[in-house]
Amino acid sequence: MGADMIAVDWSVDMAQARKILGPDIPISGNIDPTILFGTKDQIEQAVRDCIDKAGGPGKHLLNLGHGVMQGTPEEAVGWLVDECKALQRERGLSSNRWNLKVELV
């Protein structure tokens, strides 16, 4: 059985998941959704840590490991998205490697 991408819940260590899957299998995940109740600095660091543990930008699709929780500040979701975009620009990468439709609702 094959898969186009493996989604990893926030409770799974991203570095360990990448090690098990190898460098070529796309992976999705896995920021703990409670981080969005933290500070801007904590959110930005969580984005960078997740991306780096997954193999760096272009190696996975960043998302929350279990969705946005009720009561999450909208501003915090914006900080997550902004940091992801900033990292893409910083490292000179395409924002949509797999031609996915990206929508914030």
UniProtKB/TrEMBL annotation:
Domain Uroporphyrinogen decarboxylase (URO-D) residue range list: 1-86
InterPro entries the record matches: UROD/MetE-like_sf, Uroporphyrinogen_deCOase
Protein name: Uroporphyrinogen decarboxylase (URO-D) domain-containing protein
Species of the source: Cyclotella cryptica
